[in-house]
Amino acid sequence: MMFRMRNGGLHYYDPRCSTDFTFISTVENNKLPFTKQQILGVEQARNLLAGLGFPSNKDFKWMLQANQIKDCPVTLQDAEVAEKIWGPNIASLKGKTTHKQPEAIVAELSMCPRA
Fold this sequence. Notes:
42% of the residues lie in helices and 5% in strands. It has a domain at 28-96. It has helices at residues 27-31, 36-51, 57-65, 76-86, 90-96, and strands spanning 3-5, 11-13. A two-stranded antiparallel ribbon has the order 1-2. With 115 residues, the protein is mostly helical. The protein has five helices and two strands, in the order ββααααα.
């Protein structure tokens, strides 16, 4: 990236001058630093998360760490790597976010005397 200096001393970047950049983070690129075995464990963690009804990440990690699920092949590391690869779970966020009904607006009419 080339930053240019304006007359007042402020540096700026004009993205129209170059097309050599991308700011996209994809799941495929996020999977690259991990082994195939780790990715299999991560996919199991995502399936388990869905099967449990999408608990929060904190609760899910506690369940794994405290061995609350009998004979569970998913480890705490799998859950952490899944969060690194896919980011926060959208289904979990949507299920815990509520939309509150706005209060009704009551219009009060007042009579004005005629002059």
